[in-house]
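Q: Trace token order:
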Amino acid sequence: MAIKRRINDTDGRSALREWVNSLQAEASLPRPVLATAVRFTLEELASRAEGNSVEVRVPPFGVTQCIPGPRHTRGTPPNVVEMPADLWLRLATGKLVWAQALQSGQLHASGLRADLSAHLPLIEYP
């Protein structure tokens, strides 16, 4: 079953491009643009790795469930990945690899299925 996308491809890629440009210029990004980039990449992950066994959280911007496996319905999920927006976007764009993110201390992953390395990067930027 395909996920329902809320952010169209053009808007999502535009927000992601703005985030990449802000990194290069060392400039701050407006919060709505950052939120769109995060939500777009979370939707991309959910569409590429459909499932309900892992919950990926990027507070305060979004959360998604992905990876095939046992479905979780109540309480705290057994497989959770949580990180700040900047770290998530670096992973999603290939600017950082999973092992580096784990060493950063900002990525929290729990559960047997909480390794997203096989699904990242989602969209690579130079």
